Amino acid sequence: MPEVKSVSRSKKSAMSIADLITGLRSLSKNLWWTWNSSARDVLAELSPLYWSRFNHNAVEIMARVSEPELTARLSDPDYAERVADVLATFNKYLGEKKTWASEHAKELTKQPIAYFSAEFGLHESLQIYSGGLGVLAGDHIKSASDLGLNFAGVSLFYREGYFQQRLSADGWQQEVYPLFRPDSLAMSQVIGEDGKPVTVSVELGQSVVHVQAWAVKVGRATLYLLDTNIEQNEPHYRDITSKVYGGDATTRINQEIILGIGGVKFLHALGLKPAVYHMNEGHSGFLTLELVREQVVAGKSLDDAKAFVKAECIFTTHTPVPAGHDRFSPDLMGYSLGKYAESLKIDFNTFMALGREHPNDPQEHFTMTVLCLNLSRSANGVSELHGEVSRDMWRGLYGNVEAKDVPIGYITNGIHTFGWLVQKTERFWLSRTQNDREFFRNPERLKEILDEVSDEELWSLRYRLKRDLMEFAYGRLSAQYERSGQMLGESFGNALSPDVLTIGFARRFATYKRAPLVFSDIDRITRIISNSEKPVQFFFAGKAHPRDDAGKKYIQQIVSLTRQSQFLGKVVFIENYDMNVARHLISGVDVWLNNPMRPLEASGTSGQKVIAHGGLNCSILDGWWREAYNGENGWSIGKDENHADQNYQDSLDANSLYDILEQDLVPTYYNRTESGIPTAWLKKVRNSMLSLMPVYNTHRMVSDYVLKYYKQKV
Ligand SMILES: *Cc1c(COP(=O)(O)O)cnc(C)c1O
Predict the structure, then answer these.
(1) pLDDT, tens digit, for every residue of 158-176?
(2) 119, 128 Cβ separation under 8 angstroms
């Protein structure tokens, strides 16, 4: 051992301060640091204030700490050694030859897999996501990097992001759009061999739109963000890519044209020849048209071109209700893509038929999902139940065969485990696994590790994480109250307490997620929350889509409850849900509550984020939880069935939730040994970790995609 140490020391001392500064700059520009807490630490401690003020943006930190300060700070041997360690790990990662992919998918290492998604949730400092779909894409690319796949993501650069949520005094959501500058983000413009920015042009209606792109490094993978904000473009075209899912149907189709058609053109302009095009949801479906056009221009018939393209594309659907799918009217399609259709050498009706369930109905809108299903070699939903629902929904496309014969499979979603670990939890695990960052994949290994962990150690971790959440929430709530001109009562700070059973509910406020369900019976929930021996507190957070007034009403309803005397300091709503707020909540809560209308939660992933932190799930048997729940690793609300009458279903589900809370969940939490340990509770926590961590992660998910779909020979 001493020898190893001295070798690494002499290596480190070979790094000059200038090398270390260069290293820190390149580290700040590769989002690898977002899933390694030692890397986060060396960046954050340069300026804790800026770190929190700029939402943990490492590029801002490196821009604001001067060269003389960096030089001085790196003259401290302790800091310099930690930086050198991080850089050594980073460089080893980047250069690693022996990866999962080199062993299991060698044929996929030469040409890239191109993964298209309208949003990517990689980190709170890069606000190009609105919710679960984006976070899934972000976690997918992180795992693709870890597994060593040759992987290129494609999305849009939304310079105004989604929006920042502020609540008015009466609890109504206000949307504030910041402006992000590319040079203050972890991205660099894509430059060609001639030293000039690479651009492509995309036909849009009667005009041409120019598109540039920014490259985001995600470990070993690259994400290209297309951007129409170029001087040559007419002003309204410069705004196509300004907001995530912003604007009306026209903006929407324009964004999808840029993403799909622009994305293929851009990859080809870079000389990339993807082996597989993976469409994450239908937004990027137009990419198939551009691939067909290329083949038609090269001389293939339309049918041959379609067959060729079909063999290269795979499609993941995420939407379990017909109304949720993107559909464009014949008029809008004609206006936006009529001219483009001519370049495919087909008449407009044949063109529209590519996206119609009933190809001969001239009134029918163009459905992106139909286009994707028609032009991909495989399609899948994102959980077992969602696979079933999707097969049933799209039977018509396959001649009304029985649902079981519809060629739509499923791969259940996961999360990027390390990307969601807070520092304390990461240390908890790594100190017990000799720094093995893949320990969670192996159930036997995980069992051995957990057998070595005492209940006292687990409980101590839980308390530390809860304390962090309470302090974070207190800080956020003080600022929120101050802004809206109210006072956070003296009692408030004492009320939020790590001693109290803490339940979290945070996600997009789409109405099907039924955020207010737990308040269906105010008297009953008041008794549960206010039990002086066994108190409960609820943390809520979430954004409603700017045009979703019903979702905003749900927010307002909950915010108004937080101000009623019996809920004051016991039910709180934290503004501006993003990946940072999410990380605090999922690590700190004891229980993650999810009560969507079945089967509308295609998978859901937020509940998966609590597992490694020792949180438990209490959820409707929908999406991932329907296949994950085993009777001992959490709680299931309601049964594995649906009623047609939604009001009746709501009351069944609310009652089931109350019964669980009153009879099992709350009593188990407060059932303590003499030394204060909730033994039965922690047994559930162990069960949850053992049964869920190895499965509900994106390493498993991406390797499933590789083996089942990416490698599939046609
Ligand atoms: C994980 C995550 C989601 C997804 O939440 P679901 O409950 O699975 O819908 C949405 N938003 C953010 C910020 C997340 O981190």
Answers:
(1) 999 999 999 998 999 999 9
(2) yes
